[in-house]
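Researcher: Structure prediction, please.
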Amino acid sequence: MTQLGANAHGEVLAAGRVPDCYLGLRLDPAGDAEAAGVLIVGPAVLLHPSVPQPDGTLLYELLTGHPDRTPQELVFIADLTVELRAWPTDTWAKLGIDPQAAAGAMIAAWRRGDLTGLQLGELTAQEALALERPAMTYVRAQLADRLQRQLARAARRR
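Model: Predicted structure follows.
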């Protein structure tokens, strides 16, 4: 990847290497009585015209091209934030990228019916917070495991 180059370990992104992973986006509740949820989208959604660019493209490259990414893996923006720290330009701000704006655009397009995605889970307050805080890796890992089981069940029903 030309924008990031090699990371501290000498690894480079290979965009599209794992095209069958997923990105999980926090869905805020409509009302106070509801729990937050997660919108699960495929990586190609990041390249949709409704997603600000180059933000979507860089997120796509990091999501699908990270050397540690595995098929069917569910990743959140906070996870990508942690992974980005291995590169010299280690923050979204240094890259001029706003992942939250890209996430908001994807959610808005999904709500309009322009993009496909799967809404899952009722998040606990701690899980919802973990989607916003990169340091809460343990809680996000537990959430990803739970949601990946739901995703697998949904895929079997199709």
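Model: The chain has a mean pLDDT of 89.
Researcher: Thanks, that helps.
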